[in-house]
Amino acid sequence: MSKKSVVVNKYECGGLNFFDFASLNNTFKINWLKQYLADPDSFWNILPNIVFSKVGGLPFLLFCNYSITKLPLKLSNFHKQVLLAWHLIYKHNFSPHSYFIWNNGDILYKNKSLFFPNWVNNNIILVSQLLNSNGYLYFLKKYDIPVTPREFAIVMDAIPAGAITLLKDSASLQFSLSMIHPFGTVIGKICFLSTSSGGFNFSSIYCVPL
User: Fold this and answer.
1) What is the Cα gyration radius of the chain?
2) Angle at 118 between CA 144 and CA 152, to 5 degrees
3) SS in 3 state form for the chain?
4) Where are the domains of the chain?
5) The pTM is what?
């Protein structure tokens, strides 16, 4: 049992209920995210709106399997910490039929994740939307959107072979795309819709292992 565990754990977890400053820092970042999502058009959010517009906006990015170092953005340390804090509480459970193409830390071009606005604006979000009934990559004609050969080649070459194999094994299943706001997630309901005047508190969820 470490000294930190004794100091920061709740009384019921065998600790002294002191502040864990790492958790406190994460709490501040999640509460900032809460305020941002509650009023994204606020004057104070002009800068983050500009920054995250390059990857579809912050609400969209939160649902992506992003890797902070792979995003094609120059982020401040503050925004990096916000994304890290969200990653610590929201886990992107892998499923072949909900595997995002965009801002995906596994789907890279020149060591950076991808985001093509034209594709996203036409609701092409998932890798499974790019496969035919036999599980082979192709571009569905029904989308009927202008895609340059370069964009097409980048996307197809960037998708990992392992992901394609998993999708081929379940190619007959129907994919579904359900985009919801972060407020609508289980985590969002805990963090963002809480009526507590104190806001979200990291330490209220986690006990440090003894």
Assistant:
1) 20
2) 70
3) CCHHHHHHCCHHHCCCCCCCHHHHHHHHHHHHHHHHHHCCCCHHHHHHHHHHHHHCCHHHHHCCCCCHHHCCCCCCHHHHHHHHHHHHHCCCCCCHHHCECCCCCCCEECCEECCCHHHHHCCCCEHHHHECCCCCECCCHHHCCCCCHHHHHHHHHHCCHHHHHHHHHCCCCCCCCCCCCHHHCHHHHHHCCCCCCCCCCHHHCCCCCC
4) 3-93+181-204, 96-169
5) 0.73
Query: Which residues neighbour 101 within 8 Å (Cβ) at sequence distance 6 or greater?
Result: 107, 114, 119, 124, 125, 126, 127, 130, 155, 159
Handedness of CA 69, 72, 78, 82 (dihedral sign): negative
What's the half-sphere exposure (Cβ side, CA atoms, 13 Å) at 22?
Answer: 8
**pLDDT value at position 189?**
58
Question: What six digits make up the tokens of 93?
Answer: 């459970």
Tens-digit pLDDT string for the chain (210 aa):
555 555 556 656 666 565 556 676 778 888 898 889 888 899 999 999 999 999 999 999 998 999 999 999 999 999 999 999 888 877 766 676 778 999 999 999 999 999 999 899 888 888 888 877 665 666 655 567 778 888 888 998 999 888 888 777 665 545 555 556 666 665 555 566 554 545 555 444 433 332
